[in-house]
UniProtKB/TrEMBL annotation:
It comes from the Bacteria. This is (2Fe-2S)-binding protein. Keywords: 2Fe-2S, Iron, Iron-sulfur, Metal-binding, Oxidoreductase. InterPro entries: 2Fe-2S-bd, 2Fe-2S-bd_dom_sf, 2Fe-2S_ferredoxin-like_sf, 2Fe-2S_ferredoxin-type, 2Fe2S_fd_BS, Beta-grasp_dom_sf, Diverse_Oxidoreductases. Pfam families: Fer2, Fer2_2. Gene3D superfamilies: 3.10.20.30, [2Fe-2S]-binding domain (1.10.150.120). Residues 150-191 are annotated as: Disordered. PROSITE patterns: 2FE2S_FER_1, 2FE2S_FER_2. SUPFAM superfamilies: 2Fe-2S ferredoxin-like, CO dehydrogenase ISP C-domain like.
Amino acid sequence: MPAMTVNDRPVFFDMDPDTPLLWALRDGANLTGTKYGCGTGDCGSCMVLIDGAALRSCLVTIAEAEGRFITTIEGLSRDRSHPVQQALVAEQAIQCGFCTPGIAIAAAALIRRNPDPSVEDIREAVPNLCRCGVYPRLVEAIKRAGRVSRRRETISAAPAPGIDPEDAARVVPALEGGVTPDNLGGAETED
Ligand code: FES
Ligand code: FES
């Protein structure tokens, strides 16, 4: 039963150890913010932070993730206050939004290690595919997120979520710590 920390909570996946982390997160832990795009490591829509590095969760098994610290888009911030999230909204660098969670994860990892990235740094660190073509706005958003993280700029808070955080936690039980094998068929958490 591979064990790891997901969004600051211990999680045990009662699943085949060869299960891709992507499917364990989505189907076992109900953390559906992490998206399935290609399943072959090409698109980046499935990116999560593993020990702080943005990695493609479709290419990592839960056995390989054993003992690691995983952060999904749900855990990046609980109120959309992460500079990358604020800047993506402020720069309107989102169209359909399918690629956005993976991009936010990749950008967050970049900004953390390099809060003043060049365009080349951004292109290298955020190789994610976007079928809507938000790339020009994305570069501006990530540079702006860097300025926010360096305290050179502030961004007005992003619009409040359309759902109360407590209700969101019930919809996404892994955030609440209420995951059981009975209601999700795969993941257990401990407080
Ligand atoms: S779904 Fe993992 S890289 Fe596309
Ligand atoms: S915003 Fe639609 S795929 Fe990127």
